[in-house]
Amino acid sequence: MLLEWSEVLLRLGLAAVLGGAVGLERERKDWTAGMRTHMMVCVGASLAMLVSSFGFEDILGRPDVELDPSRVAAQVVSGMGFIGAGTIIVLKEGVIKGLTTASGLWTVAAIGLATGGGMYFAALAATVLAIIILWVLQLFEKKVSSRLAPRGITIMLARQEQSAAIVNELLGRQHLDIAYCNIAKSDEGYQLSFRFKNISRQELAGIMGEFQSAEGVKEINWRNK
């Protein structure tokens, strides 16, 4: 059964709208994979589903032909891994960006497949859930992470021996629960990073004030992530 041209336009157009709705949230945060990228992925996946479902009507049913049209759609799911991998950036150990965008593109591809297959309600429901997860739940995630995430400080030093002295000083304090410690060399000197568990803002401010006036300290910053 071949689809009418109006049905083809409906499925491709709906895929563009749904993919753009998800991409609009990424565009709001100025990510590289924004609205147009998500629209293209969703429309392309929808077209692949149309081809997979109706593109082989002229040869299906012949006794000498064995063909599984669903394989075309399956390749879209696995092929999205290459695009998703391109959006992931490993800044340093333990710090990775782009995972949410990659998963969003993969979800948009699935929405396009559902739209191309005529599963309008499933595509619409998945779009609504994706927007809720990316936008609405982000506000809740920030509130929770701000309370649970370990607080830390970053100190810029001129010489390496100064960083060793500060490390020994903080490690010697039994009441401090240090979750992470790192010393990195940069063009500006040495960067000393600490993260603490179960430390109050007052205690952290006291540590910053104590080392702010120490010899060799060029800069000291507080962070909560």
Textual characterization of the structure:
The chain has 7 helices and 6 strands, in the order H-H-H-E-E-H-H-E-H-E-E-H-E. It has 225 residues and is an alpha+beta fold. It has 2 domains: 5-146, no CATH class; 149-223, ACT domain (Alpha-Beta Plaits). The strands form 2 sheets. A 4-stranded antiparallel sheet has the order 4-5-3-6, covered by helices on one side. The longest helix is centred in the middle third of the chain and has 29 residues, at 120-148.
Notable features of this structure?
225 residues, Alpha-Beta Plaits, 2 domains, four-stranded antiparallel β-sheet, two-stranded antiparallel ribbon, 59% helix
Q: Which helices and strands appear, and what pairs or packs with what?
A:
Layout: H1 5-28, H2 35-54, H3 70-86, E1 89-92, E2 95-97, H4 99-116, H5 120-148, E3 151-157, H6 160-171, E4 177-186, E5 189-197, H7 201-212, E6 217-223
Antiparallel strand pairs: 1-2, 3-5, 3-6, 4-5
Helix pairs in contact: 1-2, 1-4, 1-5, 2-3, 2-4, 3-4, 4-5
